[in-house]
Amino acid sequence: MKRINGEIWPDAEGNEIHAHGGCRLAFGKALYWYGEDRRGDAYVSCYQSLDGGKTWRFVRHILTADSPVKKIHEGRDLSLRNSDGNRVNIERPKVIYNRNTGKFILWAHYEDGINYHAARCAVASCDTPDGDFVYHGSFRPVGYMSRDCTLFVDGDRIYFLSASEHNRDLHLYRLTKDGLDVEVFVQKLFAGQSREAPAVIQKDGKYLLVTSFCTGWKPNQCAYAVADRMEGEWSENLPLGDATTYLSQPAFLYEREDGEIVYFGDRWGGNAFAESAFDRSQFDYQKSAYVGYRLVFRDGKAELIHSHEAFL
Questions:
Q1: Predicted structure pTM score
Q2: Which residue segments constitute the domains of the chain, with CATH numbers given?
């Protein structure tokens, strides 16, 4: 099915796909697409594709305000509703398969739905990729603030990156073998540069990290950095795309079967907001759409290729 960048895409039944700021997971013969759904009491949606991503079928909301909870560590807040009894915010959900345990692990950014003072990560797990995830609570990793985030599996290691210290810095953590806690704070990246929306991929022995600047819903020019290993030294940030990253913010990166890399992003507020010169009064989260652009990564250099039709 042809997808046009910046348009709202339908699922296999013709309904709007709501899976923002999310991730893509290949498991078995299926692909899974997870993301934010802010309708009603839903938090994280799950879509499945059996044809390589051409069509997507809605499976279920794997995390909601009424999901089961299980305490695994003291000091974590197990609330999935705020003090007013309303929904909280679960943003940028990332799901990976943990081959160490055979479990599917979800990490996300948690706020209480009233303000943005919580700045915590949230963790959940499940035995299947599309089942009802069990919520294990929200907390600040090693005591640090945590907002926009991603997960990355590197062999038998799992890494968590998140914007911290009022979004000034990006923190890199190595997780425990079960993927449910932080084992060690590895390093601070891009101190004082206010990078968010991290997305990572490994290609030809290099690690590529794409981030955006912090401008709220308004798009800005992304940047990329390169390293020889996750816990190694990262290069300086270099510009990627045009001044607005072609009206998008990164959600995730993935490699196609033919070896091409896809930059998958959100166009917050959709084309109408993009065409309004980013007038905040014109912003409507429910009209947010998606983009897919080809990302060329060769000899340590990255280039984003703009297109009308989504490169998926």
A1: 0.97
A2: 20-305 (2.115.10.20)
